[in-house]
Amino acid sequence: MTTPEELRYTEEHEWVAGRDGSLVRVGITEYAQDQLGDVVFVDLPEIGRRVAAGEVFGEVESTKSVSELFAPVDGEIVAVNDAVAESPELINSDPYGEGWLVQLRLDDPASPEALLEAEAYRALVQG
């Protein structure tokens, strides 16, 4: 399982990638997409929506189940990945790259620091 060191993670299996200090990309981890199986549909929020950490902001539907997406930090949705909406399988093939879900403008630029580092996330999923 790949767990890029430069990302931060949640216990709900989302990742956060810093962009320029106030903007981050959010997606689901390789572990999460593996547990879901083949992703067939993604429901993403509207641009401009405000989210709070822990709040549901969308869903990922696979051949096995439907899973909610949880905001990892407080902020405003400033972009959604239309490519994933059109081709949900990108989440399976490239969860840390082309399979990103949304971009957030952070309320607090330091908030991702409170999330799990790669080593702690690996320990979480390995039980």
UniProtKB/TrEMBL annotation:
Keywords: Lipoyl
Domain Lipoyl-binding residue range list: 23-105
Cofactor needs: (R)-lipoate
Pfam family, one: GCV_H
Modified residues (N6-lipoyllysine): K64
Cofactor binding mode and count: Binds 1 lipoyl cofactor covalently.
InterPro entries associated with the record: 2-oxoA_DH_lipoyl-BS, Biotin_lipoyl, GCV_H, GCV_H/Fam206, GCV_H_sub, Single_hybrid_motif
Domain of life: Bacteria
Family, similarity comment: Belongs to the GcvH family.
Biological role stated in the UniProt entry: The glycine cleavage system catalyzes the degradation of glycine. The H protein shuttles the methylamine group of glycine from the P protein to the T protein.
PANTHER family found in the cross-reference section: GLYCINE CLEAVAGE SYSTEM H PROTEIN (PTHR11715), GLYCINE CLEAVAGE SYSTEM H PROTEIN-RELATED (PTHR11715:SF3)
Quaternary context: The glycine cleavage system is composed of four proteins: P, T, L and H.
Name this polypeptide is given: Glycine cleavage system H protein
Organism: Amycolatopsis ultiminotia
Gene: gcvH_1
